[in-house]
Amino acid sequence: MTVMGEQSSPSSVSSGCGKTLTLHSGTYTTTVNGQQRQYTLTLPQGYNPSEPYKLIFGYHWLGGTMQDVVSGSYYGIQPLAGNSAVFVAPQGLNNGWGNSGGEDITFTDQMLSTLEDALCIDKTQVYSMGWSYGGAMSYALACARPNVFRAVAVMSGANLSGCSPGTQPVAYYAQHGVSDSVLPFTLGEQIRDTFVKDNACTATNPPAPAAGSGTHIKTEYSGCSSGHPVWWVAFDGPHEPLATDAGASSSWTPGQIWSFFSQFSLFKYASEIFKEVLMGVERMENLGILAIWSLNTLYL
């Protein structure tokens, strides 16, 4: 569901808008390069086929499953979405995202095609997120499909699923633990810097919390090209998806990712309101000109 009052332009909505619902929440199978692939689809409550929704992919970690992502409420993002998004949890081959020959990119392309044909999706609001291997896959999608994904969120990721070509800007969120012994902190920094460069951000050396501090530090890069922010969160912790500060009862991760993603729908809403205001001003100016012309005609 879009922001109240927001209208998506015809070119930005999928062909599934207005169609009778044929896909429902559940698990689906598709054939990709001769292999059976599966994904789980979660529709928002009260799905309206005439309302364009965000589309959010959640990729599992090595050894994880699509059901793990679903049962974890898509890394805790689903409750924050407030029925504004369609969620998808794909299943990796051998419970990973090796992306051999780009097969997992192709799988994602096929899911996108199916979902956009059957559901009402705002094509300017497509996102990907994942932890560990799932983060690597989200990074690979940012590299390979920069004109499809509005933003990605990479939790404790690395370059494991490839990055081709990786030369165009994409809004990029990433977080990494300073004590990560599975995918060391420096690997997260390396892939972050791909988009610091591609997004034309001002290169910097962001601060990181000391080990044992129980804190996190967020850096929002400056100078990035319009619409392509980079957020980097370094946290005191190991290889984990839902980092929590010392003494806190819940993780700050879902809120940070949702804040990062949702800024783009709010930006779009504000832009369209501004356009409406300009159109209103133009209409008022035209009415003023017409009124002056009418008076001149009347008294001449």
UniProtKB/TrEMBL annotation:
GO CC terms of this entry: extracellular region
One GO MF term: serine-type peptidase activity
Domain Peptidase S9 prolyl oligopeptidase catalytic stretches: 107-154
Domain of life: Eukaryota
Localization in the cell: Secreted
GO biological process, one term: proteolysis
EC top class named in words: hydrolase
Gene3D superfamilies linked: alpha/beta hydrolase (3.40.50.1820)
InterPro entries the UniProt entry points to: AB_hydrolase_fold (IPR029058), FaeB/C/D (IPR043595), Peptidase_S9_cat (IPR001375)
Keyword Transmembrane set for record: no
Catalytic activity reported: feruloyl-polysaccharide + H2O = ferulate + polysaccharide
Principal location listed in the UniProt entry: secreted
Pfam families: Peptidase_S9
Function field: Involved in degradation of plant cell walls. Hydrolyzes the feruloyl-arabinose ester bond in arabinoxylans, and the feruloyl-galactose ester bond in pectin. Active against paranitrophenyl-acetate, methyl ferulate and wheat arabinoxylan.
Homology family: Belongs to the faeC family.
Protein name (Swiss-Prot/TrEMBL): Feruloyl esterase C
Species the sequence originates in: Talaromyces stipitatus (strain ATCC 10500 / CBS 375.48 / QM 6759 / NRRL 1006) (Penicillium stipitatum)
